[in-house]
Design a protein that fits this description.
Largest interface: A-B, 96 and 71 residues
Helix content of chain A: over 70%
Structural class of chain A: mainly alpha
Radius of gyration of chain A: 19 Å
Order of helices and strands of chain A: HHHHHHHHHHHH
Number of strands of chain B: 0
Oligomer: heterodimer
Number of helices of chain A: 12
Distance between the termini of chain B: 36 Å
Shape of chain B: flat
Number of helices of chain B: 4
Order of helices and strands of chain B: HHHH
Shape of chain A: globular
Number of domains of chain B: 2
Helix content of chain B: over 70%
Structural class of chain B: mainly alpha
Radius of gyration of chain B: 21 Å
Strand content of chain A: under 5%
Largest sheet of chain B: none
Chain lengths: ~230, ~110
C-alpha cells in the first residue's frame, strides 16, 4: 500500500524536485559563503522547512540577537499557512498519525499538490499526501545540505530554472480555474496581490494581501455563495 | 560572520521553527478533526484556494520589474506558453517543463 502510494506520488513531485534542488542548493551556498557550516542548512531545512523564511533567517543570524523581532517577523512571513490550513481541514482528515506530519510539512508546494491533485483510484489518500510532503522535504533538505557542503565550488548555468515554480503555480491555478464555475475568488486573489504589491513593495505585501483577501471574501460572501461555482 | 553565541543562534532558529509550526497548526487546533465547523469557515475552505493560487502566482513575480528592461517580457511570454501547452495537452509535467525551458531559452539567447 505504501509503495503504491509512493509510486503514485512521485511524478507529481518532479517539478518540485527540480525547483527545490535549485533553490535549496542556492540557499545552502548562501549559508556557506555567509560563514555557516552545512549543519545549519541541514537542520534548518528539517525544523523550519519554509524556503523564504530560511533565507531571511540567514540575515537574522548575522544581525544582533533580537528574539521577539525574530518571532514576529517569522510569523508574518509564514502567515499564509493559516490560509492553507483552513483549506486543508477536510483533506487532512481521517489519515491517522500521518496527519501531524502532513501539517508540519505543509509548505506552499505540498499544500498546492495535496489540495489540487485527485488521488488516483486504488491509492491510499493518506499515504499519497504523506509521500508528496516527505519527498518535497527530502528534496529541500538534500539540496540545501549539498549547497552548504559544496559552497560556491560548483557553478553551472541554471539561469531561469527558478521559473519551474512559477510554471507549476500557473498550471495549478489554471486547473482550478477550469474546474470552478465562477472565478470571483481567483480574481480576488490576483487583484489583491497585485494592488498590495504595488502599494507595499516586494518584501512586505503578503500580510496586507491576506488581510485584503479575507475582507473581500467576508464582505462579498453573500454574492459569492449565491453565484455558486465554488468547488 | 555571525556575532551571536551558539545558544543565541539556537534560540533564533528555534523561534523561526516555532513560528512556522504555529502558522501551520493553528487552524487544525482551532477546529477539531471531526466536528462540524462554523458555516463561515466551511465557506472560507472553499473560497480561499483559488484566491491563494492567484496570490502565489503574483508572489512568484514579486521581484520582476515591469518598468526596467526587459519589462517582464520573458516572464509573460513563458506564462502564456505554459498556458497554451496546458490547454492543448492537459499534462501537468509537460506544461511545467515546457514553460521553464521556454523561459531559460529566452533568457539565454534573447534577453
Amino acid at each position: 500500500m505504501r509503495l503504491k502510494a509512493l509510486k503514485a506520488a512521485f511524478p507529481y513531485t518532479i517539478p518540485i524536485f527540480a525547483s527545490f534542488w535549485f533553490l535549496g542548493f542556492t540557499y545552502g551556498v548562501y549559508m556557506n559563503v555567509s560563514g555557516f557550516s552545512f549543519v545549519y542548512p541541514l537542520l534548518m531545512s528539517i525544523v523550519i522547512f519554509g524556503g523564504s523564511l530560511e533565507f531571511v533567517a540567514v540575515s537574522m543570524l548575522m544581525a544582533p540577537f533580537a528574539p521577539i523581532q525574530t518571532f514576529i517577523m517569522a510569523f508574518m512571513i509564514q502567515a499564509r499557512h493559516l490560509f492553507y490550513g483552513i483549506s486543508m481541514l477536510d483533506k487532512y482528515k481521517n489519515v491517522g498519525l500521518k496527519r501531524l506530519y502532513l501539517i508540519y510539512g505543509m509548505c506552499d508546494e505540498s499544500f498546492s499538490i495535496n489540495y489540487s491533485v485527485e488521488v488516483p483510484k486504488g491509492v491510499d489518500k493518506g499515504w499519497f499526501m504523506f509521500f508528496v510532503t516527505l519527498l518535497n522535504q527530502f528534496y529541500w533538505v538534500s539540496g540545501s545540505t549539498l549547497g552548504g557542503l559544496l559552497g560556491s565550488l560548483i557553478t553551472f548555468d541554471t539561469t531561469g530554472l527558478e521559473f519551474v515554480m512559477t510554471a507549476m503555480f500557473v498550471v495549478i491555478f489554471l486547473e482550478q480555474w477550469l474546474k470552478e464555475g465562477k472565478h470571483y475568488t481567483a480574481l480576488i486573489g490576483i487583484g489583491s496581490a497585485i494592488i498590495c504589491r504595488l502599494i507595499f513593495g516586494a518584501s512586505s505585501f503578503m500580510v496586507p494581501t491576506m488581510v485584503c483577501i479575507f475582507l473581500l471574501l467576508y464582505f462579498f460572501r453573500k454574492p459569492i455563495e449565491k453565484a455558486g461555482g465554488l468547488i | 560572520m555571525t556575532t551571536m553565541t551558539l545558544a543565541q543562534q539556537i534560540i533564533t532558529i528555534a523561534l523561526c521553527s516555532l513560528a512556522t509550526i504555529l502558522s501551520r497548526f493553528i487552524p487544525f487546533l482551532l477546529f477539531k478533526e471531526n466536528e462540524e465547523r462554523p458555516a463561515f469557515v466551511q465557506y472560507l475552505g472553499k473560497a480561499l484556494p483559488s484566491a491563494i493560487f492567484g496570490m502565489l502566482i503574483i508572489y512568484c513575480f514579486k521581484d520582476v520589474s515591469f518598468i526596467e528592461a526587459p519589462h517582464a517580457i520573458p516572464e509573460l511570454i513563458s506564462v502564456v506558453f505554459t498556458i497554451i501547452l496546458h490547454m492543448s495537452f492537459r499534462k501537468m509535467l509537460l506544461s511545467i517543463a515546457g514553460g521553464t525551458a521556454c523561459y531559460m531559452l529566452l533568457l539565454h539567447f534573447i534577453f
